[in-house]
């Protein structure tokens, strides 16, 4: 246990206690409800409170008094929310105090920013800590967050990094030189928790195996995987290398963590305290049968600024709901699909994270609606662009992509009205069609 960890935990507890201990209470309730389940009364009450609220305050829902039950409300994709953004936004948002931005481009390549109030932001943060603590995390531990960090867009200040004991681990490039530096930083900076996307964890563990690196002196106690589905091979290799299993999670930037793996349970335990989950048929908005693969749809109970009712996440999965002997309701995602982006390579043959392409799009939010980078050869790429061409500076967009692909990348631009959807029901922000690297 590091000194900095203990000090930060003490400071957090003292500051929270001075404000009535709200965050700690929220965290403990969240943890308890994830493990012990919720009551049917809680789920019914939260849904009806939310639906009454949106029909009173959201212009999008105001004109439909006939929508009384959740099943009456339309299923909304990310594109639907973007198209109707101003109407979904509540009319009392200016009275809610400071608002926070939850931004993502997502694996589907559509930039999206959700506004929320301080209460929802606290819930997102405590939801994250709750999911971590249920798997051995201790408040204040030094964590390395693996992302494609973009200066001026998603990087954090030195003060916030110090306060949260957070190290920014850049995964824009996952070639051997970059992975070597990441390994050195993990050891030198005594990082205790790796919070990483599946693709980055796959690249890191394969590099560790290839180089036979001695990690016995590392301080890492927890590996937390998020984003795209974690391959079983990576799960097993991580356990072999570190001596413990990584934690699988499911969620997004718009809502927070929706489900979490507990212990080594192969299923994901759904957070029924914060969300109402549904699985709908692939070709209609009817509920999927038990055990049937369908679309993952969630309703967020607590965003009172930009309410997300029946949000189609773009992912597919299989869910089971059941009651325990005490009558409490539990939800499990038996399987989760989607977020399996093709592995792309730069002109040097080095692998690139899918999140490079996702975060590049954040720079052009509001101008580029969708984009997809396709690799056709060693240095040959095609960029499908759905954008406002009057505002678009294509040279600036190409420069942003070449920053990661390589200055010698040959990029053909194809303007489209919409990115073609794959058979899975999703379109990806990148795709590798080069036989040499498939």
Automatic annotation (TrEMBL):
Keywords: Ligase. The keyword 4Fe-4S does not apply. One of its GO terms (molecular function) is ligase activity. The keyword Ligase applies. InterPro entries: ANL_N_sf, CapK_Type1_Caps_Biosynth. It comes from the Bacteria. This is Phenylacetate--CoA ligase family protein. It comes from Blautia intestinihominis. The lineage of its organism: Bacteria, Bacillati, Bacillota, Clostridia, Lachnospirales.
């Amino acid at each position: 246990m590091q000194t900095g960890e203990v000090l930060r935990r003490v400071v957090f507890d003292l500051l929270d206690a001075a404000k009535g201990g709200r965050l700690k209470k929220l965290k403990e309730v969240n943890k308890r409800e994830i493990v012990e389940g919720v009551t049917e009364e809680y789920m019914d009450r939260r849904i009806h409170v939310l639906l009454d609220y949106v029909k009173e305050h959201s212009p999008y829902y105001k004109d439909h008094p006939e929508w009384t039950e959740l099943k009456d409300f339309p299923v909304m994709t990310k594109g639907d929310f973007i198209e109707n953004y101003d109407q979904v936004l509540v009319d009392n948002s200016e009275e809610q105090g400071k608002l926070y931005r939850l931004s993502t481009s997502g694996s589907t390549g559509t930039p999206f920013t959700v506004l929320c109030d301080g209460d929802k932001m606290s819930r997102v943060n405590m939801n994250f800590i709750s999911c971590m603590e249920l798997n051995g995390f201790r408040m204040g531990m030094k964590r390395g967050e693996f992302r494609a960090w973009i200066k001026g867009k998603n990087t954090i200040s030195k003060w916030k990094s110090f306060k949260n004991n957070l190290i920014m681990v850049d995964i824009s490039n996952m070639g051997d030189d970059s992975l070597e530096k990441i390994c050195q930083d993990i050891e030198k900076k005594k990082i205790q928790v790796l919070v990483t996307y599946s693709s980055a964890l796959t690249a890191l563990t394969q590099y560790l195996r290839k180089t036979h690196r001695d990690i016995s002196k590392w301080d890492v106690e927890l590996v937390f995987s998020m984003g795209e589905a974690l391959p079983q091979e990576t799960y097993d290799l991580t356990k072999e290398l570190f001596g413990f299993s990584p934690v699988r999670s499911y969620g997004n930037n718009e809502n927070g963590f929706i489900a979490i793996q507990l212990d080594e349970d192969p299923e994901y335990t759904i957070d029924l305290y914060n969300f109402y989950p549904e699985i709908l048929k692939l070709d209609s908005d009817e509920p999927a049968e038990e055990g049937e693969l369908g679309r993952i749809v969630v309703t967020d109970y607590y965003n009172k600024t930009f309410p997300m009712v029946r949000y189609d996440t773009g992912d597919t999965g299989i869910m089971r709901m059941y009651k325990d002997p005490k009558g409490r309701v539990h939800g499990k995602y038996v399987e989760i699909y989607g977020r399996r982006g093709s592995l792309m390579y730069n002109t040097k043959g080095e692998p690139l994270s899918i999140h490079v392409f996702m975060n590049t799009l954040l720079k052009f939010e509001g101008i580029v609606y969708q984009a997809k980078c396709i690799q056709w050869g060693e240095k040959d790429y095609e960029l499908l662009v759905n954008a406002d061409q009057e505002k678009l500076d294509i040279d600036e967009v190409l420069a942003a992509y070449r920053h990661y692909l390589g200055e010698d990348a040959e990029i053909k631009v194809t303007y489209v009205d919409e990115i073609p959807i794959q058979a899975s029901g999703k379109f990806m922000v990148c795709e590798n069609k080069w036989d040499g690297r498939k």
